[in-house]
Amino acid sequence: MSNATDTLYARDITHHLHSYTDARMHEGVGPLAIERGDGVFVYDTEGRRYIEAMSGLWSAALGFSEVRLVEAAMTQMRKLPFYHTFTHKTHQPAVDLAEKLISLAPVPMSKVFFTNSGSEANDTVVKMVRYYNNARGLPLKKKVISRIGAYHGVTIAAASLTGLPNNHRAFDLPMMDIAHAMCPHHYRFGEPGESEEAFSDRLAKGLETLIQREGPDTVAAFIGEPLMAAGGVIVPPRGYWQKIQAVCRKYDILLVADEVVCGFGRTGNMFGSTTFGIEPDIMVLSKQLTSSYQPLAAVLINERIYQEIAGQSSTIGTFGHGFTASGHPVAAAVALENIKLIEERHLVEHAAEMGARLRAGLSQYADHPLIGEIRGVGFIAAVELVADKSEKTRFEPLRRVGSYFNARCQEHGMIVRNIGDSIAFCPPLVTTAEEVDLIINCFSKALEDTQRWLAQGH
User: Fold this and answer.
1) Which domain holds residue 322?
2) Measured between alpha carbons, how far is 100 from 88 in angstroms, rounded to an integer?
3) Pick from 189, 183, 187: which is nearest to 227 by CA?
4) Which of 20, 328, 329, 384 is most exposed, with minimal Cβ within 10 Å?
5) Same domain, residue pair 324 and 356
6) Could you say which residues of the chain have pLDDT below 70?
7) What pLDDT is stored for residue 8 in this prediction?
8) How many CA atoms lie within 13 A of 252 on its CB side?
9) Residue at which a domain ends, from 323, 344, 365
10) Cα distance between residue 238 and residue 287, in whole Å
11) DSSP secondary-structure letter at 218?
């Protein structure tokens, strides 16, 4: 380790509290310090190269060195580096982006509200749902149903929607008026001999039972990612979304599609809602919206919701919600250029093609004794590692083997993410066939290392 890197490590440990990190462990191990990016690769401060098979945080659709996004930001910075969208103010990038997102939406949408992150956007959704039902004269209809294993962010409301224990423990979450339905993972929770369609029937019935228990007059919305990403890359079983939608419509429950990860080509269509036949009332977008070159998120609402919100804001005198940087002109300009590039370069179609190549490469190892399930759709996938293949037995303690596998991938020059003992892949949309093959090669080496490590009795 060079002196410069050693100094950076020491400063980081001294002053920086990291997201999703064991702070005490970090004091001892320190960070992997990334210095620069080039295409789908990033380089650490020692010059080591890593293929970024997670797009950073499911988000760098165009990789880490797209000059046109940098130029879009610089041009807008020179023209108007900041302005807000409060109290009847606007600017060209926000207007253009809102118009573009409405035109791309897979179902008719009416208005766009901008935030800075998916967490803020989902927090906004919870508030909007309350505002909407108060406007309708339904003050009891406030509860939102999410799912066990879901990920929707980290604000108090969004973390409550998230269905992962470590997002709740010691934070006194979830908050009131949030409930969680079953996780739609057929491999893990399907009964012996139960088809995907039958599993979907059982999940829909379970949702209806939950609604009845909570009280239909109190349940306002159901939120779900088209494909659950941070929950383990869980592909919904056949017929799932159609059956869930039917239950929501029956009880006048809004359907919220959290497209933060799935949007802008990740599932092989522009939106995951198209891939899985979802007709949402509300859509939440972020991450690949700007390829994370700028922080930006958007909430799309349909006309029915807008009319109620507009009427309520007229009664009160304002829609009392917003963020200083909502619709930030630089972020909006970058998003417009990002979408333009995705369309120009046919990256949605390219993602579908490269995703098929990735899954085919991973499927070569389907018979390996450590691999329980290989799953994915579009250009997102996961491999679940198991202790006993025939019994689907998990390793104990959970995450130990996945963490080792993750570390071996990094040693071989690839950054992935272990979600428990599932290894997730979410490469940039611009990844080439040769780079997909490199991902498979690194995976193979890490798998061999892990098998050897386990055989040694670890």
Assistant:
1) 69-344
2) 20
3) 183
4) 20
5) no
6) none
7) 87
8) 13
9) 344
10) 27
11) G
